[in-house]
Amino acid sequence: MPGALIVLILATLLGIQPVTTDLYLPALPAMTTGFGAPMSQAQLTLSALLLAFGLSQLIWGPLSDRFGRRPVLLWGLSAYTLASVACTLAPSMALLIVWRVVQGAAMGAVVMCARAIVRDLYMPLEGARVMSKGLTGLGVLACISAPLGGLLSELYGWRAALTALAVFGGGALLLIALRFEETLPQKSMDALRPRKLVGTWITLFRHPTFIAFSALSTASYAGLFTFLASSSFVFIEVLGVSKTVYGLIMLASSLAYIIGTFICRHLLPRHGVRKTVAMAAVLSVTGGTVMGVLAMAGVHSVWAIMVPHMLFMLGHGVHQPCGQSGAVGPFPQSAGAASAMNGFLMMVAAFGMGGWLGQRLDGTVLPLTNGLWLWSTVIAAVAWTLVRRHGEPVTRPAVQVPGTP
Q1: What confidence tier does 399 reach under pLDDT thresholds 50, 70, 90?
Q2: According to DSSP H, which parts of 23-92 are helical?
Q3: What is the DSSP string of 191-237?
Q4: CB-CB neighbours of 54 under 10 Å
Q5: What is the pTM (predicted TM-score) of this model?
Q6: How far apart are CA 152 and CA 295, in angstroms?
Q7: What's the pLDDT tens digit per position in 283-325?
Q8: Among candidates 178, 165, 200, which has minimal Cα distance to 64?
């Protein structure tokens, strides 16, 4: 496949995550009111989806190592599209949560395969650069998602925002069916055997590079999720902005992320992965700390949150491509399983934060600001210790997983 097509496919597959999580956020308060549901149930439409997203990858990863990326993508996107239609028609919050769980499980196949495809085709350093290009496309879709969700919900009601997810899923399914060619160089015939699975997971958690980069991507995503899960309530209900303005706030956040991915591609050839991540961690911890200090000092405004958050998102644009590609890099023979475990860890952290936020959204900005401050500190600690010590050299031989040729 041509390089431009690969980047387009990666952007579409990776972008399904912000489309699924961001596009309906402006409609979330209205959806909660429409169903007469408590705020904790509304949070489950996001956190339960992400838990299913994370857990399902533990199954999709070995399946893709056994049968290939293409069939898993076709299965996943078909299920995603059908679940999206069911979400649109859901008559209650409980059923909406059920179908969001199915949607999240199907999304796991899509995003996991995208990360594995990068390892199928590229060595770690080049993989980080290509991943950053795909994540730039993700950022563009994230830019579009929240404003579009706000506009659709304002004009046609909150169900229109859910309908847009079905349209995106159908388009992605068509792209993969018509243009994607299999990238897995050799199928692992015993990838689904329990002994092989357990051996692979043990190998992953014994490898310091996997631990370092998974900790980085997990902490960075947990910070982003803290913002996503609480921002619609904080900005719309606490600070009083309109849905349209909230969409523009999310647009600004995504633009900062896109710039971060460009910074990543600029720094990687000059400084390598470890130094690039260390430099980006300065942006992360500065943004989180400034936001937290301003909130504790009683400065509660859109700008007091958004300006520091933009710094955090610049760092996020570096940490995600480096973290996701770095975690999978040492395992070319089991890239699906490594990608799946990396994704699972990110979603476990997100689910935990979703539960915490559901109980602590108290009509102030503090749950958002304190949560992001915490994760920015964790990012810096990981970047300046684990990644610095165990970041994978490009020339290091690949790790053999027991049972692979």
Answers
A1: very low
A2: 28-35, 39-67, 69-89
A3: TTSHHHHHHHHHHHHH-HHHHHHHHHHHHHHHHHHHHHHHHHIIIII
A4: 25
A5: 0.79
A6: 32
A7: 999 999 999 999 999 999 999 999 999 999 999 999 998 998 8
A8: 200
